[in-house]
Amino acid sequence: MSLGEFDIIRRFFATRASRSDVQLGIGDDAAVLNPRTDRKLVLAMDTIGEGVHFLKNTSGYDVGFRALAVNLSDLAAMGAEPSWMSLSLSLPTANAAWLEDFARGLFDLADRYDVQLIGGDTVRGPMVITVQVGGWVECDRWLTRSGAQPGDNVYVTGTLGDASAGLRTLRDRINSTEASFLQQRFLRPEPRIAAGRALRTIASAAMDVSDGLLADAAKLCEASQYGITVDVDALPLSRELRASFDEGDRIAHALSGGDDYELLFTVSVDREQQLASGSVAGVPVTRIGVIESAPGLRCQRGGQPYSPRSTGYDHFAHN
Amino acid sequence: MSLGEFDIIRRFFATRASRSDVQLGIGDDAAVLNPRTDRKLVLAMDTIGEGVHFLKNTSGYDVGFRALAVNLSDLAAMGAEPSWMSLSLSLPTANAAWLEDFARGLFDLADRYDVQLIGGDTVRGPMVITVQVGGWVECDRWLTRSGAQPGDNVYVTGTLGDASAGLRTLRDRINSTEASFLQQRFLRPEPRIAAGRALRTIASAAMDVSDGLLADAAKLCEASQYGITVDVDALPLSRELRASFDEGDRIAHALSGGDDYELLFTVSVDREQQLASGSVAGVPVTRIGVIESAPGLRCQRGGQPYSPRSTGYDHFAHN
Predict the structure, then answer these.
(1) Are A145 and A219 in contact (CB under 8 A)?
(2) pLDDT digit string (tens) for B131-179?
């Protein structure tokens, strides 16, 4: 089935709910937005490609969901509230059923956060999808990677390693209740928007875990110009991950797997009582390490130095 | 040559000149910007792919230049002033020489308009490049496609058909002074930012000509819910196009060629004296038609109805 470019836009991506900060949405040369005078503007852009970020047989729904989720995760890591998105869709063919499914996945997530599609581009080409998401954060404080201080404790939301383990079970065509949970964690990452909003006034530094805990923790250290020690025994692992993989594999997934889209953040000792409940905005948080003066990334198990199998995920390093 | 993703970002795309409206640029999970209280925010996003928007052997410089130029053209069509960009780069390999050349082309154009790179994504994949550009426009008036009224005259900036003719001569490997001019018009489209800014208070409707005059004029009509008659005899054609193609071909390039990135705009009769000099912000403008109550797109030559060979460019329709 072949559809014209403009038919595609009209049929599947016509504007739905309209926001007061969107003056002119989809359909013109550009969108016009009303800046909020009491907020800073936050913008993120992420790209996903077939065979690199998702498997070739992934459903349109899951691709659409993921394309937005990974972007919302970046806004969560800034403590920002999402507001609108632009979508660039490069597709080899204009398949109506796939597009309908894609749009459903995209908008199911978008509607949950009142994110309006304001424009973008559709072109013929290999399957590569870019979403640019915009939102707002209070002027007095937002989260960055660079605010950590020695002595700050290091936390993560949720559990680590599920998504990467889920990808493994997808590739190995494993069917089980546990595998199904892990696969969902890979296919439909849950952006931690509410946690990010709550952490805005709690965390000293934050980022999302997309390339794997160790790779991302190293970036946080570098931005803060300090070091970190990760306590491997403390890593929060799901029951499903524990049930499906032996200890070596689950630690490898949790440390280096990528695609978790949890938040990694640091908290100064004097703010720690704000995490006393063990959760933020309903999401469990776990202390997994500490920021130290000595630069670099270190792991320990049972109080002893520990060398992980590998570090993180780098698209180009896989060449 | 293979480079890590983060080395790429650091080596070629590190932030240069910083703008006062950019609070936090490249290097974190998202960028943080300072909204202007006296302006509306304008956002556009365009994607270009190898073999669809540029030929396979196009230099990195020309790809980088084009990726931004087509986006700036959208801002020009809104009468907006560009400010920053995000870049998504999907590339099969991380070739340092190509990337350096790409960055040079991108930044040569960006620096001309004081556009700051604030973030984006680099992934391994087929060559697909998306740029998202942001800028500002005065709160009282900006340009859209939908403001035209019956009786308004229709104008274009510059000349039409050069880019598409240039692509033809590139494909046919023609070397001549004229071909070189036409090829430059294809390879380095000049966004009409200054003209767009000046037209903000002159034009009743505007858009950029990217898919070909007829295809884009049809969109402008549809947005305004009126019709248009294009006077084919009036089309502004460059000396180089006239010298290189016979009458039938040059009219076809001018009407349907695409990639012109000139501005198509309408002006009410009472504002026409503002175009008396025949130029806007130093760019020649030519009257090519009139808006009419009867919907639809019509062409005429010598006062008689004229049927063009084909209409415009639609990526997916080429399948």
Answers:
(1) yes
(2) 999 999 999 999 999 999 999 999 999 999 999 999 999 999 999 999 9
- In the A/B pair of chains, how many CB contacts fall below 8 A? 238
A278 CA: distance to closest CA in chain B (Å) = 25
Q: Residues 83..112 of B with a Cβ closer than 8 Å to A: which?
A: 86-88, 90, 93-94
The minimum CA-CA distance between A272 and chain B, rounded to whole Å, is: 24
Q: Do B94 and A6 touch (CB under 8 A)?
A: no
Express each pLDDT in A198-209 by its tens digit: 999 999 999 999
Tokens of B233: 């005899």
In total, chain B counts a number of residues equal to 319
Q: Which residues contact A133 (CB under 8 A, 6 or more apart)?
A: A43, A44, A45, A68, A71, A72, A74, A75, A82, A84, A85, A115
Residue A115 is given by DSSP the state P
Altogether, the residues listed in chain A come to a count of 319
Q: How far apart are CA B223 and CA B246, in angstroms?
A: 34
Task: Quote the tokens at residue B113.
Answer: 């308009």
| CA A302 and chain centroid, separation | 30
Residue identified by tokens 């005059």 is B213
d(CA A146, CA B299): 60
Q: Which residues of B, range 26-55, sit inside 8 Å of A by Cβ?
A: 27-37, 39-53
Q: What is the mean pLDDT of residues A299-311?
A: 87
- From chain B, the residues in CB contact with A74 under 8 A are 29-30
For A194, the token pair is 């509410």
| One-letter amino acid of B45 | M
- How far A51 CA sits from the closest chain B CA (Å)? 8
- The whole-model pTM stands at 0.93
E-assigned strand segments in A184-282: 205-209, 227-231, 262-267, 279-280
In B, residues 56-75, which contact A (CB 8 Å cutoff)? Answer: 74-75
The answer on pLDDT for A247 being more than 60 is yes
- With H, G, I as helix, E, B as strand and everything else as coil, classify residue A230: strand
CB A147 within 8 Å of CB A45: no
- Distances from the Cα of B298 to the Cαs of A227, A252, B214, B219, B263, in angstroms? 69, 66, 9, 13, 19
State how far the Cα of B272 lies from the Cα of B203, in Å rounded to an integer: 9
**Taking CA A72 as the corner, what is the angle to CA A68 and CA A75, rounded to the nearest 5 degrees?**
150
Residues of A in contact with B93 (CB under 8 A): 316, 319
Task: For A126, name the nearest residue in chain B, comparing CA atoms only.
Answer: B126
CB atoms within 10 A of CB B73: 28
Q: Is A125 left (phi over 0), alpha (psi -120 to 50) or beta?
A: left
Q: Are B29 and A43 in contact (CB under 8 A)?
A: no
Which of B5, B35, B130 is opposite residue A35, by nearest beta carbon? B35
